[in-house]
Design goal:
Elements: H1 3-6, E1 9-17, H2 23-33, H3 54-59, E2 66-72, E3 75-81, H4 89-96, E4 101-107, H5 114-125, E5 130-135, H6 144-155, E6 159-161, E7 163-166, E8 174-177, H7 194-202, H8 206-214, H9 220-232, E9 237-241, H10 250-260, E10 273-282, E11 286-295, E12 297-299, E13 303-306, E14 311-314, E15 317-322, E16 325-328, E17 331-333, E18 337-341, E19 351-353, E20 369-375, H11 381-394, E21 401-403, E22 408-413, H12 416-430, E23 434-436, E24 440-441, E25 444-447, E26 451-457, E27 465-473, E28 480-484, H13 493-506, E29 519-528, H14 537-553, E30 555-569, H15 573-582, E31 586-587, E32 591-593, E33 596-604, H16 605-608, H17 611-618, E34 624-634, H18 653-660
Parallel strand pairs: 1-3, 1-4, 4-5, 5-9, 6-9, 28-29
Antiparallel strand pairs: 2-3, 7-8, 10-11, 10-19, 11-18, 12-17, 13-14, 15-16, 15-18, 20-22, 20-23, 20-24, 21-22, 25-30, 26-27, 27-29, 30-33, 30-34, 31-33, 32-33
């Protein structure tokens, strides 16, 4: 019997953090302390177990989420180490969906950063039980009291310290358990004691509040049991402390995973319900789909239904991927994670079997830049297209577009670091030397007012499709809302479904060439003809009706915004304020603490592309800017951005009809 079959329980845990908070180092020490690996790897030396790509080892950053596992006290723990850099937020987003518990690492020096907040809000929206781990208490500048205040202010007031740091910076030597019936540690920072834990939990638990008010004794055992209950409900959050690079706090973190994070639910005997959260290509096995099972079982040679794509495929092998090693399993059951081979058509986000047990996915990552890719020669374009398609399978947000007529390749990216990584991947993995143009900002459009679009597509025969749409501006961030008020006897359901399918496609290019968003489209009228209507007539008519409606409403240009936090030495504060005014920023009143000038605000992406480099140069490398996507907002009237339209504009109805009928002569 294998070790895995003897285990008493299981945990699926994601490790999340802002860049440089010590995520991969923490994972490495968890593996080492548990005995899963015999020698410690290092991020700096490129030997970390979960950094498997060449570029990860060279750059010392995580680019892809990596799965690994360990056994601690007879419990099998699947760990997913996620990237910390904002350019690879899509990997974080996909990992969040399949976790039953999380560890959110916060540096005791840098504190809560913008990406920390973004990940936290996603964890909260999915109600994922979370441990908070304050790392780097051995570093110069570590300030646990300040960081605890930041956590309470910016993340949650229900962070409950369960360990107190012993010493600080170069004297940091360990952590003392707060949840014991003993006096607080000598010199422990304020808020890191049993009394503070009781006070926090009394806000949630009425019996404890009653005891607290009446002055009745509350044992540490009672506090721990109460904290366990509320942690598993994602209402309270244990806070641990440590210094992962010195293995301080690691055993305590392993114990907390078992004590506070829940076991996965699911019944192996139920029909299959699973989601694909990652796709990789193996040299021998081809496409590997990383799958989290919520219900049911997958065995070798099983035929699996891909509910998203409506196809069936046969499983050829099931593997447990452990960093850079792989182990054949033969079977994977509810609650577990494995890599499944043989699903050649599978894509990230596909639902396998019944979709009803799979939780919804958070949406955090939004590519804000588009860039054209050039091959070394025309002869290399087919190879480059295939390589980029493979990378797009692994990261769908790249959204590869091959414009065959113009012979242009375009991808969407999050930032400059991602472009560097793409260049490296194309070189090391595919042997391709490529050149990227300067990235350009991805704008969007939204209707300027309410209006109607009408199309009567009745010529040249045989064809008949009549549609009337109402087009209205939607709430910011609402995307596309579509509904039909047409009865089935007026327009057959099959035709209405075709219209619904084509509306999002029609909105990919608005009057200015950008995707139209924050829009409500209502089908008011529809008509088909018993003899003349062809099934594809409504596919042709829908874009013409939508574009005709947009021409009536007009569109407003929307620009992407960043929420930023800038920290510089105090003497550079005036220059930063001047720069922000020039970049059309809006910001809160700055604060000054410990000789550092701190400012938070919103910046247009278009005006701030080069600012991180400028800030670093201006401050001699002592300035720090962190950012996260803050949505789209209307551009000022003097900002103009138009994108070249691909294909024939449906507003030119005669030419468009000829084009879709393949009758247009160039």
């Amino acid at each position: 019997m294998t070790e895995e079959k003897r285990i008493a329980s299981r945990r699926n845990v994601g490790i999340f953090a802002h860049v440089d908070a010590g995520k991969t180092t923490t994972t490495e020490h968890l593996l080492y302390v548990s005995g899963r690996i015999r020698a410690l790897g290092s991020v700096d030396s490129g030997t970390a177990q979960t950094d498997s790509l060449d570029v990860e080892r060279e750059r010392g950053i995580s680019v892809r989420s990596a799965t690994t596992s360990l056994v601690w006290q007879n419990t099998w723990i699947n760990l997913v180490d996620t990237p910390g850099h904002v350019d690879f937020l899509s990997e974080v987003e996909r990992s969040l969906r399949v976790m039953d518990g999380a560890i959110l690492i916060i540096s005791a020096v840098e504190g809560v950063q913008s990406q920390t907040e973004m990940i936290w809000h996603a964890l909260q929206s999915l109600r994922i039980p979370t441990l908070l781990y304050m790392n780097k208490l051995d570093r110069v500048g570590a300030d646990p009291e300040r960081v605890l205040q930041e956590i309470h202010k910016q993340l949650t007031g229900m962070a409950v310290p369960i360990y107190a740091p012993l010493g600080l910076e170069d004297t940091f030597r360990g952590a003392q358990n707060v949840l014991i019936d003993a006096p607080p540690a000598v010199g422990a920072p304020q808020g890191f004691d049993l009394a503070a834990a009781v006070e926090k939990l009394s806000e949630l638990d009425e019996p404890m509040l009653t005891s607290y008010i009446e002055g009745a004794p509350i044992s540490a055992h009672e506090v721990k049991a109460t904290l366990q209950r509320y942690t598993r409900q994602a209402e309270a959050f244990p806070l641990l402390v440590g210094a992962s690079s010195k293995a301080i706090g690691i055993e305590e973190l392993l114990a907390a995973i078992l004590d506070y994070l829940p076991e996965p639910r699911g019944d192996a005997q139920q029909p299959l319900s699973a989601v694909v959260f990652k796709v990789e290509r193996d040299k021998t096995m081809g496409r590997m789909a990383y799958v989290r099972l919520y219900e049911g079982t997958i065995r070798n040679r099983d035929t699996v239904v891909n509910a998203t794509q409506g196809v069936e495929e046969k499983v050829t092998q099931i593997r447990r991927i452990d960093g850079r090693k792989a182990e054949d399993l033969g079977v994977v059951t509810a609650g577990d994670i494995a890599a499944v081979c043989g699903l050649t058509q599978v894509r990230i986000g596909d639902l396998l079997g019944r979709p009803d047990s799979v939780p919804s996915a958070p949406r955090m990552a939004v590519p804000l830049l588009t860039v054209q890719v050039h091959a070394e020669s025309d002869a290399q374009y087919p190879v480059l297209v295939a390589a980029l398609q493979e990378l797009t399978d692994e990261d769908p947000l790249l959204d590869l577009q091959w414009l065959q007529d113009e012979r242009e390749l375009h991808v969407k990216v999050m930032g400059a670091i991602q472009l560097e990584i793409l260049t490296s991947l194309l070189s090391s993995r595919f042997g391709l030397a490529v050149r990227f143009d300067q990235p350009s900002v991805i704008y969007k459009e939204t209707p300027s007012q309410t209006g109607e679009g009408f199309i009567a597509y009745t010529m040249p025969k045989p064809c008949w499709a009549i549609l009337r749409f109402r087009i209205e501006p939607g709430a910011p961030g609402s995307g596309l809302v579509y509904e039909s008020q047409v009865r089935g006897e007026q327009l057959l359901l099959q035709y209405q479904n075709e219209v619904a399918r084509r509306v999002p496609e029609a909105l990919q290019q608005g009057l200015l060439g950008w995707e139209v968003t924050d829009i409500k489209v209502t089908l008011l009228e529809g008509e088909h003809h018993v003899w003349h209507t062809h099934p594809l007539d409504f596919a042709v008519a829908t874009p013409m009706g939508i574009m005709q409606g947009l021409a009536q409403t007009g569109t407003t240009l929307l620009e992407p915004m960043l929420q930023v936090r800038i920290t510089v030495p105090e003497e550079f504060g005036g220059k930063v304020l001047s720069d922000l005014v020039q970049m059309r920023a809006t910001f809160d009143a700055p604060s000054i603490a410990g000789g550092r000038f701190v400012l938070e605000g919103r910046l247009p992406v278009a005006t701030s592309l080069e600012y991180p480099v400028k800030l670093s140069a201006m401050s001699g490398g002592r300035g720090v800017i962190t950012s996260s996507f803050a949505g789209y907002q209307p551009s000022p009237p003097d900002v103009h951005a138009e994108r070249k339209r691909r294909g024939v504009n449906p507003l030119d109805q005669s030419k468009y009809i000829l084009a879709v009928r393949k009758a247009l002569v160039n």
